Amino acid sequence: MLTFDEALTRAEHYHGHICSGQVLGIRMIQHGLRLMGLENDNLRDLMVFVESDRCVLDAVYAATGLTMGRRRVKLKPHGKTAMSLVDLNTGLGFRLWVKCPDFPPPDADCKTWWAQYTDDQLFGVSKVHIAIPPEDLPGRPKYEAECDACGASVLDNRHVEQDGRTLCLDCANGPYWTEVTP
Ligand SMILES: [Zn+2]
Ligand SMILES: [Zn+2]
What we know:
alpha+beta; CATH 3.30.1330.130; Wheat Germ Agglutinin (Isolectin 2), domain 1; 2 domains; 5-stranded mixed β-sheet; 30% helix; globular
């Protein structure tokens, strides 16, 4: 495991600045790794569910090298500075969240500000199980379908069956984009 300062340097480079999200995110994931007994491990069997698509997500990338593209980080965009670390074989692990109500004043050095709290003061922890569907696991795709409407190849069981047809989500529910004529 990187030291906190090594991870913060990476996070500053990757994320573009040091902020409370980087400081809390690194401390949270490293606290979680220690709870999992993975501080000296290669994290081969770890999956992290991050509950915000903001700064804290980049802190997890920087501190661990795990990414969404490698299917080791899952986004649950619930707007919370919280995450769950689980063993992807068993689904067992820990959920951590920020319980400390104070936030640093705008001109404060956030690394120094948060350093006044211990991990136990900062984070709530509970033991959790997460049911990970087979299509969400790392490795080669287990499911591949073709959309009967647009012909797109759809991986990972993200297609739906509707009135006897196999459809991608955009053809089934309407696309998330609007085409603009040039
Ligand atoms: Zn930030
Ligand atoms: Zn389609």
